[in-house]
Amino acid sequence: MLDIAAIRTQFPILGREIYGKPLIYLDNAATSQHPQCVIERIADSYCRVNANVHRGVHTLSQEATNAHENARKRVQRFINARHSHEIIFTRGTTEAINLVAHSFGEAFLHDGDEVIVTTMEHHSNIVPWQLLQSRKDIKLRVIPINERGELDMEVFRNLFTERTRLVSVMHASNVLGTINPIEEIIACAHAHGVPVLIDGAQGVPHLAVDVQRLDADFYVFSAHKVYGPTGIGVLYGKEKWLDAMPPYQGGGEMIAQVSFERTTFNELPYKFEAGTPDYVGTAAFATALDWIEATGFEAMKAHEDDLLQYATQRLYEIDGMRILGTADHKTPVISFLVDNIHHYDMGMLLDKLGIAVRTGHHCAQPLMHTLGIEGTVRASFAVYNTREEIDAFVAAVNRVSNMLR
Ligand code: PLP
User: Annotated active-site positions, please?
Assistant: First the structure.
């Protein structure tokens, strides 16, 4: 059992008041808050260590380089990648998917080829493929969902053609909470000789990920959703793919030799990391992963599962409650609507009561279209949330609903 009260004291922001009410932060699927150790690591990097990495012989540069490269090994261990050079640091999930769309797309996708995605994808796993469509005549094939918000695996198995070149799907939905059966998806795609990219933005915060056991070809996620800093993301890719893909951006770090006649590229991972990396961010990200490990990933998950069950059951006590996404396996994310109350009105009034939830289409407009709605109110939980906060949240939703009805 975790001591949640003790965990909460490590998160300074949780002491804030909003409109004179204690902050109840239920927007963790958008970004999670930071424990003191992560904040201190950022300050410490700037106070004691700051120097550009890789190019300096002086002590500060070597220390900064060590911290940055140790962070890469830390991430490697977190997702059990075979090699540390299979970990590419990006600005986030979005940049990681854009990198693959651009670079894998350049090398392996040709006119007439197909990429399989799902109805529930975040825009960051739709638009990069559409950008590629301006250069190559590729097609998106879409796996539909059932009324519970689960993928229709029967349809998925029949979407493969001889032109399928990639399956690119989310581990878990940021709207519905659905945990997709990615083991089955990867096995099925591989049986057709097709590689798989997993958008793990909502997977990594709540599910233990072992990329070798999964046999994922690419797995991408963002640090800021796992208690780490903003502006850092990870592209894990199997060495064989990354080696065969051309660079994404050009500049410093990613080259071996440059002349005006010809440039040769650096080895992995630097081939994909043009320019000065966010080495302060990567160091703090490693601290966040250490913090998760020290807190206990499985215990965190058990607590978050309890919050999900409790909040779901309590929300259904409210008249007119409609929860979107009722899959058996969910991350702690609840999207809902009450009667015909606008999600935006609900979110605004909850804020006045100190409660932070997200409202809108959650960067998943095709999913909203499928559900026949414009948006939802979304509450999402992290390890520092409590049943008492959920009680206050449910009481607030009830109060606001009665006001707006
Ligand atoms: N994919 C999913 C499933 C997400 O939930 C998000 C962010 O909410 C993203 C991608 C984009 O992540 P980022 O904005 O950190 O690049």
Answer: 363
pLDDT digits (tens, 9 = 90+) for 128-167: 999 999 999 999 999 999 999 999 999 999 999 999 999 9
Instruction: Quote the pTM value.
Output: 0.98
**The ligand 1 atom nearest the CA atom of 172:** 3
Q: Domain ranges for the chain, please list them.
A: 4-30+296-404, 40-293
Distance 263 CA to ligand 1 centre (A): 34
Give the per-residue pLDDT at 55: 82
pLDDT (tens digit per residue) in 4-29: 999 999 999 999 999 999 999 999 99
Q: What is the pLDDT of residue 282?
A: 98
Ligand 1 center to 129 CA (angstroms): 15
Fold type of domain 4-30+296-404: Aspartate Aminotransferase, domain 1 (3.90.1150)
300-150-159-211 Cα dihedral, nearest 10 degrees: 10
